Amino acid sequence: MSTKHSSTETVIGIDIGGTGIKGGIVRLETGEMVGERFRIDTPQPSTPQAVAKVVKEIVDELMTRKHAPAADAPVGITFPAIISHGIARSAANVDKSWIDADVDKIFSEELGRDVQVMNDADAAGLAEARYGAGKGVKGTVLVITLGTGIGSAFIYNGKLIPNAELGHLEIDGFDAESKASASARERDGLSWEEYAGRLQRYFSHVEFLFSPELFIIGGGISKRSEDYLPALKLRAKIIPAQLANNAGIVGGALQAAVHFKITK
């Protein structure tokens, strides 16, 4: 499904997670959320049909609002998987029946409008690069989210290089996220000083491989960045993300607007 879209100042973004699906209306010029987010628990089991119905519920609710986008505006959707040409190639924290599913088609048919689906970490990175901590930064920006695992987005001169799975780099014989994620800190009972030591090992390795201009740290643990970021010694600047939990919604909306040429 692809049509010519009416001009619109806002686009709906939907962020699909393992426990919740949330959506909001995003003003494209500024990246600001217009009004409150709307959230519904992720259905269990989180099959394609069940998730698509919840996404439609959220879009229908948002479309009743004063600042809703044009009726034919595309919807941007983030998904916890590797997304290649609209197809899910993995399934993190959602039902395994999503693997190899045509995610674009499933949602566009359910919503009756164009959609653009992207990896959730990529969406957060894109939002930070356009509207947040990475705005205006030239060269390579790496957005790293520290949570249950380690998510990553690779941005070069403001453009997204999709599906960079830097949390799965092998370091010292281990998957990096098994040692340096926020959940690993809690599991192993690490002090902030001990955790900073693990992060130092991880970020030094990533910096050696990619030589970024800037690291942006996201995920819930970014709220405690003063407890560990000052201890890290890197050539690149490293700072916390600005958009917090809205980053996925904002990035998803932006990607849809760019893909369908509503905005540059």
TrEMBL record:
Keywords: Kinase, Transferase. The keyword Protein transport does not apply. GO terms for molecular function: kinase activity. It holds the Pfam family ROK. Belongs to the ROK (NagC/XylR) family. This is Polyphosphate glucokinase. It comes from Arthrobacter livingstonensis. The lineage of its organism: Bacteria, Bacillati, Actinomycetota, Actinomycetes, Micrococcales.
